[in-house]
Amino acid sequence: MESTKFLLDEKAIPESWYNIVPDLPFGLEPPLNPATREPVGPEAFAPIFPQEIIRQEVTTDSYVPIPEEVREIYSLWRPTPLFRARRLERFLDTPAHIYYKYEGGSPSGSHKPNTAVPQAYYNREEGVRRLTTETGAGQWGSSLAFACGVMGLECTVYMVRVSYDQKPYRRIMMETYGAEVHASPTDLTQAGRNILGEHPDSPGSLGIAISEAIEDAVGHDDAKYSLGSVLNHVLLHQTVIGQEAIQQMELAGEYPDVVVGCVGGGSNFGGVAFPFIRENLKNGRDTRIVAVEPASCPTLTKGRYVYDFGDTAGTTPMMKMYTLGHTFVPSGIHAGGLRYHGDSPIVSALVHEGLVEARAYTQNPTFEAGVTFARTEGIVPAPEVTHAIKATIDLALEAKETGEEKTILFNLCGHGHFDFSAYEAYLAGELVNLEHSDEEIEAAIAGIPG
Ligand SMILES: *Cc1c(COP(=O)(O)O)cnc(C)c1O
After folding, report:
1. How does strand 288-294 pair with strand 357-361?
2. Could you tell me the distance, in angstroms and rounded to a whole number, from the CA of residue 235 to the centre of ligand 1?
3. Residue of 139, 272, 366 with the most ligand 1 atoms within 8 Å of its CB, for mutation
4. How far apart are CA 218 and CA 426, in angstroms?
5. Is 356 in a helix, a strand, or coil?
6. Which helix (H) or strand (E) holds 86?
7. For 205-250, how does the pLDDT look when each residue is reduced to its tens digit (9 = 90+)?
């Protein structure tokens, strides 16, 4: 029988995270103070992040050692398996070889604990007692709740009201891990009270929840804030995915011609792709790197590469990134994790410089790809991942046209076990292919300051 899974021993869990920044053939532009437009130093982040996280955010070291305690907790689900999708290949009748790295076996069911655990660890080491954060559908909140639990920290999650009401199971998961979960906007913060004063029935938004979580952290000496994507230190922590995948592709006796990932804030994509981009830059490899996003939130494919705020309220430092404008409200698609107006500054720069190519797809074709995957490979993918699967299937069908034996690797960054209402809508033919008109996108982009 031919191998389906390529498994590593626990000893193969990487000992360091890989930092792509010193290997980039171009410089990154610094964050700017929103008031003065002067570059902000790392100290600007001190009220919300611990020192070690701030150091990692700006480090130019190529590798950052992973603390032994973090590696030990990683061993609860790492190394994650690499699969060869032989049944999908046969279904597509393609000469392409398709591989996927599966991060859905983690406690919360996605890649997010890869960064939640080290973030909780550094906070505890620096004497922090409680972490605050926001969550939309709950993938990040449940990952941080788990991480705080294992590190003995308290965890306060501001969960967007509409998700809190409509998606109770992620909330219950967070509470099971010991977190305190509030429907945002709350009357516990000034930011929340301001919104409730004007809109007592506000459904909330990620932007509002971020403002509440930051206000809570800044207002309490023993609390800090934690972010699950976008920033450099988050992408750094996710590089365990790509580093393991390189070892596993070697076990399979192949090397990918294409690496594919879905992009919301860029963390699972950076996690799988950066170690392979390093091979392109340093070791003469020539792998195509493909980032996939929803057509309803086309940050990389239709956004502008300029300075913009990270949050809706416009209070965070400004970052140079692809953005649709911080006031852009993406349509209510089911891939909630991909609904962000901006993107990781590193991923944005890589797209801008042509080292990464970006594609966008609408909902129905991606869910169709997700269902095809579930019916051939068995795993029901999170709606976010179906974007990467759609691109992978398209690439495999192109290879069939040209008769090329391409090797494709994609990151299956989470399962869809909390997302069956989305599959229900797809199967009932009730999903709409939401896209924004060019005029609407132009109007939001016109609102970017400067
Ligand atoms: C959060 C999440 C995403 C989007 O975040 P990235 O930082 O772009 O990875 C994608 N897929 C899943 C399963 C998620 O939980």
Report:
1. parallel
2. 11
3. 139
4. 42
5. coil
6. helix 86-92
7. 888 898 899 999 999 999 999 999 999 999 999 999 999 999 999 9
- Ligand 1 atom with least separation from CA of 230: 7
In angstroms, what CA-CA distances link 296 with 41, 89, 188, 229, 255? Answer: 34, 29, 33, 20, 33
pTM of the model: 0.97
Ligand 1 atom index nearest CA of 103: 13
Q: Which of 262, 321, 410 to mutate to test the pocket of ligand 1 (most atoms within 8 A of CB)?
A: 262
The answer to whether 297 and 282 have CB atoms below 8 angstroms apart is no
Atom of ligand 1 nearest to the CA of 268: 9
- CA-to-CA distance for 361 and 372, rounded, in angstroms? 16
Note whether 359 and 298 are within 8 A (CB): no
Interval between CA 262 and ligand 1 midpoint (Å): 8
432 pLDDT more than 90: no
User: Which residue matches tokens 């020192």?
Assistant: 51
Q: What count of Cα atoms within 13 Å lies in the side-chain half-sphere of residue 186? A: 21
Pocket (CB within 6 angstroms of ligand 1): 110, 112, 139-140, 229, 262-269, 337-338, 382, 384-385, 413-414
Distance between CA 90 and CA 260 in Å, rounded? 20
Ligand 1 mutation target, pool 144, 386, 413, 419, most atoms within 8 A of CB: 413
Asked whether 386 and 92 are in contact (CB, 8 A), the reply is: no
Q: Is 154 exposed, middle or buried (0-12, 13-18, 19+ CB in 10 A)?
A: middle
Q: Residue 144: how many CA atoms within 13 Å on its side-chain side? A: 30
pLDDT band at 111 (very low <50, low <70, confident <90, very high): very high
What is the CATH number that goes with domain 5-11+67-109+233-446?
A: 3.40.50.1100
Q: How far is the CA of 198 from the centre of ligand 1 (A)?
A: 32
- Per domain, the residue ranges of the chain are 5-11+67-109+233-446
Place of tokens 């290949």: 89
Give the span between the Cα atoms of 342 and 308, in whole angstroms: 8
CB 32 within 8 A of CB 317: yes
**Residue of the nearest CA to atom 2 in ligand 1?**
337
